[in-house]
Design goal:
L-lysine 6-monooxygenase (NADPH) activity, L-lysine N6-monooxygenase, Lys/Orn_oxygenase, flavoprotein, single chain, globular, five-stranded parallel β-sheet, 28% helix, oxidoreductase
């Protein structure tokens, strides 16, 4: 049986939709509900490794960048848990990953709008009432049905494995998202190979490498690190470089033609796919320490090497065939296990594809067209909005999946729901100009500019 129509139904409760629910909490005029199939909030649980931190400052919590005085901020979380002074002397902007996960869980348990253990099975549009019909199933097997004027889709991404990593083998061949669950078993392997060159790969390598003792290395235990990239490079961490993760860059990027946007993001990998300086330093320093006197350090690194195939040997090991790109040569190596740190991809649910085929406008690639206000463009003339959280980066730029822009996006969404600018949008969020330079001009210059002459 339908209940009274909601104003907003959220599908998925990751950090972005959880942040939306948190910022909506003071607004009783907006009736909202967020549904998540997991029984509780969990964030990257397979990569909760000791010593790992967020790659963004703690201010990239669920609410602060839109509402610094919000009681669901990270600082208030610390205050409630009697950790403010400890954090004060911790002197780090980058908090432990485990603490961020605990903070989000703390927030989720204070929000009655968040319902866990309820999986959305279908979403359809009812043209007669211009509402979305959401059907869900609880872990108890019970079915529920809701109606909502608007949707907020926050289903996130899923681990992606290339074709070579999809073979069924008796030897461990796992995605890095499962690393914590497999770490103990991997530590018993004599040789483990990690494939990838991002932060997740580096963290897996460091965890495996730290576990090796000098005696194990002398007996032949080793970790191999392989990437098809040109090297093991750091992600962009300079202050001006980080301005690509601001509302200013997002606004500029959205003004670029869609096909050009796709082309641009192809060359921006190191802005967000690289390794932190501190992790690179830890790996290097440990190799240096363990190679004193010319000893085998127990870790080998190979860049420019793409995995082309993996097959199981008669001895239950894994034979990995590699092609060196610049040299155009191949070689095979063997390993007892493989960790594929090969990233994540969007896995849009079937009901979203059905919405695209009925009410949402798509581009030549079949992707929904997400506007600058984070709504998917509709082709049926109805007024209900479909907000897309963390759309592919060609929609809004490399900042789309960045936690630091979540609160800004959610404030933009809520302002639309309220029909007024309740949350203040930053007038300037970057020092640099991403588009054409803007400068002071006298009246004559302004006149010439209005006639189509760009003044520098």
């Amino acid at each position: 049986m339908d209940i009274e129509p909601l104003d907003l139904a959220g599908v998925g409760i990751g950090p972005f939709n959880l942040g939306l629910a948190a910022l909506l909490a003071p607004h009783s005029s907006i009736r909202s509900l967020f549904l998540e199939r997991k029984g509780d909030f969990r964030w990257h649980e397979g990569m909760m490794l000791p010593g790992t931190t967020l790659q963004v400052p703690f201010m990239a919590d669920l609410v602060t960048m839109a509402d610094p005085s919000n009681p669901l901020s990270f600082l208030n979380y610390l205050h409630v848990h009697d950790r403010l002074y400890q954090f004060y002397y911790h002197e780090s902007f980058h908090i432990p990953r485990e603490e961020y996960d605990h903070y989000c869980r703390w927030v989720s348990r204070q929000l009655s709008s968040c319902r866990f253990g309820e999986e959305v099975s279908s979403v359809s549009h009812d043209a007669s009432s211009d509402t979305f019909v959401i059907e869900s199933r609880l872990t108890t097997g019970e079915f529920r049905r809701y109606r909502s004027r608007h949707l907020a889709i926050g289903v996130g991404t899923v681990p992606w494995l290339p074709q070579w990593a999809r073979a069924h083998t008796s030897a461990p061949l796992i995605h890095s998202a499962m690393f914590a669950d497999w770490q103990e078993q991997l530590s018993k392997c004599r040789q483990v190979t990690v494939v990838g060159s991002g932060q997740s790969a580096a963290e897996c390598v460091l965890a495996l490498y730290r576990a090796l003792t000098p005696e194990m290395i002398e007996a032949g235990a080793a970790v191999r690190w392989i990437t098809r990239s040109a090297g093991f490079h750091p992600m962009e961490h300079s202050k001006l470089g980080q301005e690509c993760f601001t509302p200013a860059y997002m606004s500029y990027f959205h003004d670029i033609p869609r096909e050009k946007r796709r082309e641009i993001v192809e060359g921006q990998g190191l802005l967000y796919k690289g390794i932190s300086f501190s992790t690179i330093a830890e790996v290097f320093d440990l190799m240096y320490e363990r190679s004193v006197g010319g000893r085998d350090p127990g870790l080998s690194l190979a860049a420019n090497c793409e995995v082309t195939s993996v097959e199981e040997t008669a001895s239950d090991r894994l034979r990995i065939t590699l092609r060196h790109g610049p040299l155009n040569q191949t070689v095979s190596v063997e390993s007892d296990a493989i960790v594929a740190a090969t990233g994540y991809r969007h896995a849009w649910p079937q009901w979203f594809d059905e919405l695209k085929s009925t009410i949402l406008e798509t581009d030549a690639h079949g992707d929904a067209i997400v506007e600058a206000d984070f709504t998917a463009r509709r082709r049926d003339g109805s007024t209900g909005r479909v907000f897309i959280q963390n759309a592919e980066i060609f929609q809004h730029g490399v900042g789309s999946p960045d936690l630091g822009l979540g609160a800004y996006r959610n404030a933009t969404i809520i302002n639309q729901l309220l029909g007024r600018n309740y949350y203040r949008m930053p007038a300037r969020s970057a020092f640099q100009e991403f588009g054409l330079p803007v400068c002071s001009a006298d009246a004559d210059d302004e006149k010439r500019s209005s006639e189509g002459v760009a003044m520098l």
